Amino acid sequence: MDPQKQRIRAFFDRLAPEWDAGTVRPEAVIARILDNGGVRPGVSVLDVGCGTGVLIGDYLARGAASVTGVDLSPEMLRRAEAAYPQPQVRFLLADAETDPLGGPYDCVMVYNAFPHFPHPALLLARLGAAVKPGGILSVAHGMSRATLAAHHANVPAGVSLELPEAEALATLFPADFTVTTLISDEEMYQVAARRT
Ligand SMILES: C[S@@+](CC[C@H](N)C(=O)[O-])C[C@H]1O[C@@H](n2cnc3c(N)ncnc32)[C@H](O)[C@@H]1O
After folding, report:
1. CATH architecture assigned to 3-19+38-195
2. Residue 178 CA to ligand 1 centre (angstroms)
3. Stated pTM of the model
């Protein structure tokens, strides 16, 4: 693993024990993100950078047929595995920019994680390839870009990049995707697109 990824892994391993206690869930925003991401009964979901699994229960509550959570941090994943032992849920300890992701999936969701990927275009190309035709790829944050930037102000260099403007992010989606959601306001950020 390259040194930058080692630093990112170590950073989130360190935060893992306190992660859930520090997590704020903007419920209405999460519901909109899941609606726009196409999460409905029967779908297969890949959650990229799932952390301790903050959205896994939401996917299950919406009747997802299967949920795969992928994360680089063993300590985050250990907590997710303990919290969600359901048979339709599985977790992959992997680098989503380089490692196999399984699939294809109906919904590929990146929630509150995109700035931690150093190669955004590469990531979107790989995630796009993991989406079924007709499925949705979503990159979302449950806060504004400005709030996120303030939140990341003290994060060590290389662990977090600036979140692009939504319009700029949309241009990075693979060519066989059509943008269906483009939101960047005071309470949330989401770019979602459907694979043709
Ligand atoms: C800010 S946390 C968000 C976790 C979760 N989505 C949430 O909202 O609580 C970002 C997560 O992305 C994971 N991550 C960072 N780089 C990754 C990579 N290359 N592949 C997979 N996961 C990664 C981190 O380990 C961390 O758990």
Report:
1. 3-Layer(aba) Sandwich (3.40)
2. 25
3. 0.98
